[in-house]
Description:
- By secondary structure, the chain is α+β, with helices and mostly antiparallel strands.
- It has one domain (about 5-150): 2-Layer Sandwich (Alpha-Beta Plaits).
- It is about 35% helix and about 25% strand.
- It contains four helices and five strands, in the order βαββαββαα.
- It has a five-stranded mixed β-sheet, with helices on both faces.
- Helix 3 packs across helix 4.
- The longest helix has 18 residues, at about 20-35.
- The protein starts with a strand and ends in a 10-residue tail after the last helix.
- About 25% of the residues are buried.
- The model is unreliable at about 105-115 (pLDDT under 50).
Amino acid sequence: MQNPIRSLVYVSRSIQRMSLDDLNKLLIQARASNQATGISGVLLHHDGLFLQLMEGEPEAIELLFKKILMDRRHEAVLILVDSLRDRPRMFPDWKMGFYHFSSIEHLVGPGLIENAAHDMDKVTQLVDPDDPVTLLMATIWKANRQHFDRTPRA
């Protein structure tokens, strides 16, 4: 049996409006840090609000979350789910998946190219009703999925 992983989902609000350059820098830094510490997950952003799921060894998640709490770029940090899980990670290969719930049509440049919406669709179809992490992420995704249909409308 595998060692349990810690899954932590939180929301927060940005202190100041983040530009695409700000988001790009944040993602590059987060992906490098997560790669080095074995953390995976996904970040959802909409109009200054963030929702992040991070998964990893309990100690690594604890250290990262302490840094997040000290980060002066955001406020109103609220933990939605914090659990030890004997299940596989939701995002084992995503050092920091990213989805942007805004009117910005194209996010280009290193770090800001969103994951394909169908990738998140696949992950959220594997919902375990007894697992609050997968249930929460699937519910949020399904309720907001239409915002990721980037195909031009006639």
